[in-house]
Every structure is written in C-alpha cells, then in structure tokens.
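Researcher: Structure prediction, please.
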Amino acid sequence: MSLAYIRDYYGVPARRGGRVRFDGRDGTIVGAQAQYLRVRLDGDRRPITVHAKWRMEYGARSTSR
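Model: Predicted structure follows.
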C-alpha cells in the first residue's frame, strides 16, 4: 500500500517529508509499510512504524531551535 492509499482511506494529509507529532514527539514521514506510516522521530536514527490516526497530529512544527 502507498501513501496515496493512506491519504484516501484514512483522510489524513500524509506525504513523504511531512511533519507530524506522534505521541508528543515531532518527526518526519519517510514512507509507508502496508497500511502504516514510517516516521523518523527527531533525534532518532531509525524510523518507526505507526498507524496513520493513532496518537498522530499532522503539520507539527518543531519546538526546538
């Protein structure tokens, strides 16, 4: 499945490079795996797999400077 599928099915603005906040941590969408998003959280080396709607906020802005 693709990011286009996730956008259409879940009604979210998921795009590669898009900023998100997952469970209170900012990150960047790096891809999709099946019906899940791959997100690299700020400060982490490896992306994690998360559901497109569970604990997700889209359009997150970085709070660090």
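Model: The first strand starts at residue 19 and ends at 22.
Researcher: Thanks, that helps.
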